[in-house]
Design a protein that fits this description.
The protein is α+β, with helices and mostly antiparallel strands and about 475 residues long. It has helices spanning about 20-30, 45-55, 95-100, 105-110, 115-130, 135-140, 155, 165-185, 200-215, 285-290, 315-325, 345-355, 370-375, 380-400, 405-415, 420-445, 455-460; strands at about 5, 65-70, 70-75, 85-90, 95, 225, 235, 245-250, 255-260, 270-275, 300-305, 330-335. It contains 17 helices and 12 strands. The longest helix is centred in the last third of the chain and has 29 residues, at about 420-445. The radius of gyration is 27 Å and the shape is elongated. The chain binds S-adenosylmethionine.
């Protein structure tokens, strides 16, 4: 029988493999370190920035930028009611693909992905220093965040075994390869446009800035930085993304667009206005994009990746079946703590494991009905295989972490962790909890194999060939 291939999280690549002795030292060092803080811009820079926004047509009726626990934030200067506008930013102050296209580097950025062209634009403006009209904005951008893309190797060793680590490494490799391309094809070829030096670290910084400061519907092709509005921080207690912002048109035919940010809740004078960034993101995504996580079980996820191996003797039939059902050769299933399995996971698993005496279901006469059959157990052999493979994958994945959930929980309770260590411990505990949950679902299923109803029995029942007590009915000739 063809066994399902479940890809467990990739192992730490060799440069990051650390001896257990080294890891112990690291935990202690990080536990004792102070809250990591990047230095905040001076009061004068904040005043400059506010004046710059007002001089360009921005409207800020009720907030001021100022220091808050999350870095900079927007502080209410009077009581602000729910749904009240806190800042309006005209389109000419947004930094998007149009800004780049109409700039001096526009001619060399055609065809680039929006994020790459905006990244080049910001880095170039930075190298221009005082000569850049964007200086007041550039001056208030943080030099780093707690996103895992900015973590040292020591810090990354704290998420050994996690999916977040492999994603972080993958993202950094992607940024590095994009940088190598633009460096060769644009920066070095247009020295007149890029006289200052731009390094991979600069490119990674700007990537982090774009990921952490873009609003949820302003990504991809619509990517835009909205100065000032992007000082708004996230509050996990705000459970709706509605009301927070909209794009409006002013003037004849709405030609002069502006970005309007609203307070989703009543805010007292002196307190910070916040929004909900994105309800859909998992803790791993929050950690990667923004550098924080929530203690909310709905954000604790683990992604199972299943694939139909090319070496599977029924590869073509199985591929046809998954594609007919809107899936691909490789499928990703996000499992969320405390929630039931994604409905398509079990049929996909059963299909991948299908073989032997069950292979007749792959014949073309079943093509229109097979997915329905796969939603229920096919055969004991098939069901046993999926339980075994999933449980082995969970066991394998769990063995890759350095700590147990209990150890992580004790560390969290100690209350002694810096902001990055809090993320590391929260992420690895969350992933393990979900893996344990998946394992227990398939352990229970394994213990019920004898009592499940399989395809052949259902078929006999449909044909009226099984009696009330499960006995096969024979007719006398
Ligand atoms: C859109 S910016 C908000 C302005 C930012 N605080 C600053 O100083 O420029 C998003 C970044 O703010 C910080 N941040 C926002 N909400 C946060 C939260 N609830 N907890 C921790 N950091 C937060 C993170 O560094 C995140 O990457």
């Amino acid at each position: 029988m063809a066994l399902p291939r479940i890809i467990s999280p990739p192992r730490l690549p060799s440069p990051l493999i650390l001896s257990s002795q080294f890891r112990k030292t690291t935990v202690r060092a990080i536990l004792q370190s102070k809250e990591s803080a990047t230095s905040l811009p001076s009061d004068a820079s904040l005043v400059d920035f506010s004046n710059w926004l007002l001089s360009k047509g921005g409207v800020v009726p009720s907030v001021k930028p100022g220091p808050v626990p999350e870095g900079l934030g927007l502080i209410a200067q009077r009581d602000i009611s729910r749904n009240e506008v806190v800042v309006e930013v005209p389109k000419k102050l947004w930094i998007d693909a149009d800004t780049v296209a109409s700039s001096e580097i526009g001619q060399v950025c055609g065809g680039l992905r929006p994020w790459v062209s905006i990244a080049l634009f910001l880095l170039r403006e930075k190298t221009l220093g005082d000569a850049s009209p964007w200086k007041p904005y550039l001056n208030v951008l943080p030099s780093s965040t707690d996103s895992t893309i900015f973590w040292s190797e020591e810090e990354l060793s704290q998420i050994q075994g996690t999916q977040l680590l492999s994603t972080t490494i993958g993202v950094k490799e992607y940024v590095e390869s994009e940088f190598a391309k633009v460096e060769e094809e644009i920066i070095l070829k247009s020295k007149n446009l890029f006289p200052g030096s731009i390094t991979y670290d600069d490119f990674l910084w700007v990537f982090g800035i774009l990921r952490s400061r873009s609003f949820s519907r302003l990504r991809g092709d619509n990517l835009a930085l909205i100065p000032f509005a992007d000082l708004i921080n996230h509050n996990p207690d705000i459970t709706s993304e509605d009301l927070a912002w909209e794009i409006k048109g002013k003037g004849l035919f709405g030609r002069d667009q502006f970005f309007s940010l609203r307070a989703p809740l009543f805010v007292k004078s002196g307190e910070q206005v916040c929004i909900q960034y994105d309800l859909e993101k998992s803790n791993a995504e929050l950690a990667l994009d923004y550098g924080f996580i929530e203690s909310n079980p709905n954000r604790e996820t683990y992604t199972l990746m299943l694939e139909i191996a090319e070496s599977d003797p029924f590869y073509d039939d199985k591929l046809d079946i998954v594609e007919t059902n809107g899936l691909n050769e490789t499928a990703y299933f996000d499992i969320v703590l405390g929630q039931t399995l994604t409905p398509q996971l079990l049929p996909y698993l059963r299909l991948v494991a299908l073989g032997g005496t069950d292979a007749f279901l792959l014949e073309s006469i079943f093509r229109n009905t097979i997915w329905g059959h796969l939603e229920l157990p096919v055969s004991r052999e098939n069901e046993e295989a999926i339980c075994r493979v999933v449980r082995d994958a969970c066991k394998n994945a769990l063995s890759a972490y350095d700590t147990s959930v209990e150890e992580d929980e004790r560390l969290m309770e100690s209350g002694n962790l810096d902001s990055r260590m809090k993320i590391a411990v929260g992420i690895r505990a969350g992933e393990k909890r979900v893996l344990q949950q998946i394992d227990s679902i398939f352990r229970n299923r394994e213990s019920e194999l004898d009592g499940l109803e399989y395809y052949q029995e259902r078929r006999l029942k449909d044909l009226g060939l099984v009696g009330d007590n499960g006995e096969i009915i024979f007719w006398e000739s």
